[in-house]
Design a protein that fits this description.
Largest sheet: 5 strands, mixed
Strand content: 5-15%
Strand order of the largest sheet: 3-2-1-4-5
CATH architecture of the largest domain: 2-Layer Sandwich
CATH class of the largest domain: Alpha Beta
Number of strands: 5
Helix content: 40-55%
Number of domains: 2
Shape: elongated
Radius of gyration: 24 Å
Length: about 270
């Protein structure tokens, strides 16, 4: 019906303007009408097919920046503005993450280390810099807390742990897995926020015993630990938000909503 209306009024109003008002794409109108589209419109149809496919594969989480990189990786010569236009014209809007819960308790009298990274998240080799943090996943039984340790060289999760309680043992378990798997040499920089879990005597003693240099974010500066925050953002927008309604229990969250494949073991 919308295309018919556009076709009827095309002599009085610009097609692109009517498409914007009615929320349809010009390329879709021309395809419906059967008129041979110009070269750019033909390219739009090719790009749109790839965009729809990638959007569905990402469970509706890709915005125009990541969608552009995805298409470019497939060998398509498309820019971000064109991607954004095609997504906007066809109602492809990335889902947003939900809920916020504070996991950092920095109001304590425990020892605090200086910031050795200075927001330099590059690493020249594996196990030169690690980042650690704690986040959460909502289930119908309540919050499930997730602690991770990430190697900044490859942005790879090298240690992780989950628990229904937010305590220092959670962080220690994630660290223990990372140390057992990677066996890092002395001199590794371990960066975290100033949460009580990371400032605890047990946690810092384990790092010191291994010859690991302790680094912590500045007060109230989330950008100091941005590399781990980015991981959590991706996790929640691309995996957790997609299946959150299926997470009937904490155990179910760890195995995924629809299969036995672990949803939190990303790497």
């Amino acid at each position: 019906m919308k295309f018919q209306l556009i076709d009827t009024a095309k002599d009085e109003f610009p097609v692109h303007r009517m498409c914007d008002v009615l929320g349809v794409s010009p390329s879709g109108y021309f395809a419906w009408r059967g008129r041979p589209a110009c070269r750019r419109q033909q390219q739009d149809l090719i790009f749109l097919a790839s965009i729809r496919s990638a959007f569905a594969a990402s469970h509706g989480t890709y915005g125009s920046p990541r969608m552009t990189r995805e298409l470019q990786d497939e060998g398509l010569a498309i820019g971000r503005r064109r991607t954004a236009r095609l997504m906007g014209e066809n109602g492809l809007k990335a889902r947003q993450k939900r809920r916020f819960k504070r996991t950092t308790d920095s109001h304590h009298g425990l020892p605090v280390a200086p910031n050795l990274l200075g927001q330099d998240f590059t690493a020249e080799r594996p196990d030169a810099k690690w980042g650690a943090d704690i986040s959460y996943v909502w289930t119908r039984e309540g919050w499930l807390y997730l602690a991770v340790v990430i190697d900044l060289f490859a942005r790879r999760v090298v240690g992780w742990a989950v628990s229904d309680r937010l305590h220092r043992q959670l962080a220690l378990e994630a660290l223990g897995k990372a140390l057992a798997i990677r066996q890092p040499q002395a001199g590794l920089i371990h960066h975290s926020d100033k949460g009580s879990q990371y400032c605890s005597s047990d946690y810092q003693a384990e790092l010191t015993r291994r010859g690991i240099r302790i680094s912590m974010s500045g007060k109230g500066n989330c950008y100091d630990n941005a590399m781990v925050e980015t991981f959590f953002k991706t996790l929640k927008s691309e995996l957790v938000s997609v299946g959150v309604s299926s997470f009937t229990s904490r155990a179910r969250t760890q195995t995924g909503p629809n299969s036995g494949a672990p949803i939190l073991r990303l790497r």
